[in-house]
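Renewal narrative, Specific Aim 1. Our central claim is that a sequence can be written position by position from structural information alone. The example that follows is taken directly from our test logs and has not been curated for this report. It begins with the structure tokens describing the chain, in the order in which they were read.
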């Protein structure tokens, strides 16, 4: 049996996006009878650790230096390695490649020092960019390579979503901002929802007590309701039950579109700007705004949200456009490319 290692970022500040997309690829590899082991600090985000453990995947603590990586990968007797990190230095990749071990690295636009036989940039319109590649590298780019987890694929509609609640029904909103909401977007989005002045029933994920308290402190009209929950294993089900899903414009965008969700996006950090602008530009998601602007004034976001809450036809249009954009088969294509190296 082949064995593949996955070295990825995770943490209270970094969030769980790297783990989530790596889990999608891990699920595909295990389906092909490949053993998988993670190397990351999953213990720093218990929910992420639970997601890995639930799949029966072993976890090694993260290492940081080039020598530590070479030693770890040799000790684990890996046939190939997957990197998904913003934090590792270039010499780590170079040292691993020098051993002859096949490597694949997930990137988002900038390579950040990453080197591998295969670089995967799963972002919208990434295929239109033509960066200079390291010697001997192939780049797989665009939404054909989006990594989607089993949970999402199992609930993806078989056909274009067309049926939405009647326009006079109170719309259901689901809002989440990664496994940690590292930038505290939840309270500001709830403020913007409240400022619409229209009815809604919202479920908002708050990974900590302080965030939950701030959300609960937002003043609502009597016809508006917000329920706060912790990180959930029922993400896809919550999204499918909602009329509008609000999320950060990170890796979760592609899962929402694959599900045929009506997605409202918040750009919470600079490295999400390109993905945010491209998704909005395609007409497959609505732009709620940049988090720093929501913090100063929720007015512009409230205008967008009011339209989404009151216009069922617009919600249906966005849902259908997003569903068409992603076929859910990206992880098969990436797994093919990785295993061809071994």
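The sequence written for that structure reads:
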């Amino acid at each position: 049996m082949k064995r593949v290692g996955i070295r990825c970022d995770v943490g209270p500040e970094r969030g769980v996006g790297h783990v989530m997309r790596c889990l999608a690829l891990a699920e595909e590899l295990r389906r092909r009878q490949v053993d998988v082991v993670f190397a990351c600090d999953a213990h720093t985000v218990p929910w992420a650790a639970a997601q890995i453990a639930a799949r029966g995947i072993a976890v090694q603590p993260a290492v940081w230096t080039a020598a530590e990586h070479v030693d770890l990968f040799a000790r684990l007797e890996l046939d190939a390695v997957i990197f998904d990190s913003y934090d590792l230095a270039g010499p780590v990749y170079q040292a691993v490649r020098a051993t002859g071990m096949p490597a694949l690295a997930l990137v988002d636009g900038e390579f950040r020092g990453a080197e591998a036989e295969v670089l995967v940039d799963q972002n919208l319109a990434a295929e239109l960019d033509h960066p200079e590649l390291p010697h001997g590298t192939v780049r797989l780019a665009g939404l054909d390579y989006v990594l989607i987890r089993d949970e999402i694929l199992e609930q993806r509609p078989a056909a274009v979503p067309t049926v939405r609640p009647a326009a006079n029904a109170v719309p259901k909103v689901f809002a989440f901002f990664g496994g940690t909401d590292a930038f505290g977007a939840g309270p500001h989005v709830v403020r913007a929802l409240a400022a619409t002045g229209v009815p809604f029933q919202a479920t908002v994920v708050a990974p900590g007590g302080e965030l939950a308290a701030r959300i609960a402190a937002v003043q609502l009209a009597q016809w508006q309701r917000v329920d706060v929950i912790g990180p959930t294993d029922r993400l896809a089900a919550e999204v499918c039950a909602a009329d509008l899903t609000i999320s950060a414009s990170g890796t979760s965008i592609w899962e929402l579109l694959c599900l045929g969700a009506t997605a409202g996006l918040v750009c919470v950090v600079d490295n999400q700007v390109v993905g945010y602008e491209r998704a909005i530009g395609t007409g497959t998601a609505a732009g709620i705004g940049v988090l720093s602007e929501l913090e100063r004034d929720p007015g512009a976001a409230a205008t967008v949200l009011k339209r989404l809450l009151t216009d069922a036809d617009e919600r249906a249009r966005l849902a259908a456009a997003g569903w068409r954009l992603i076929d859910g088969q990206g992880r098969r294509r990436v797994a093919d490319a990785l295993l061809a190296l071994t």
